[in-house]
Design brief:
Length: about 150
């Protein structure tokens, strides 16, 4: 179990990005997003019965249609409790991960197991994921804005 952040931080910032290693040793980006069960979203029909009572859900950071990243370093684009795919505009319910429209229709985002303690602290509890660092896969390394010329 690895301490990630707090529910308050996710709600204030709109999302929280981190990197894990999956069971095969591959790096994956994961997003924490606010989930408000008191709001009914048109794309949610209890598709997976996995609605959160803790105010946060964790999803792999890519659309099910063409693996487009939701969070590209500026936070997850969201509207009315739904994640918006920046490539084709498919909308995914932030609580269930289900999409009922657009190119990704009838799919559900891959989830990552988390636990929220009573004080609002969020922990990674997925047996198939090991925490690597906060931020995306490419964060912390050389970036494309380098001023070195060859």
């Amino acid at each position: 179990m690895h301490k990630l952040t707090t529910v308050e931080t996710v709600h204030e910032d709109g999302s929280w990005l981190f990197t894990v290693r999956d069971q095969y040793g591959e790096r994956e980006e994961v997003i924490l997003v606010p989930c408000d069960d008191t709001v009914e979203h048109s794309s949610t029909s209890s598709q997976n019965g996995n609605r959160s009572d803790d105010g946060v859900e964790a999803w792999i950071n890519r659309c099910t249609h063409e693996a487009q990243r939701f969070d590209t370093g500026r936070g997850v684009p969201m509207r009315d409790g739904q994640l918006i795919c920046p490539r084709h505009g498919s909308l995914f319910d932030s609580c269930s991960g289900y999409c009922d429209n657009g190119e990704a229709s009838e799919t559900t985002l891959p989830s990552v197991s988390i636990t929220v303690h009573g004080d609002g602290t969020v922990f990674l509890t997925d047996d198939d994921a090991t925490f690597v660092h906060e931020g995306g896969i490419d964060d912390g390394g050389p970036d494309s804005t380098s001023h070195i010329s060859l």
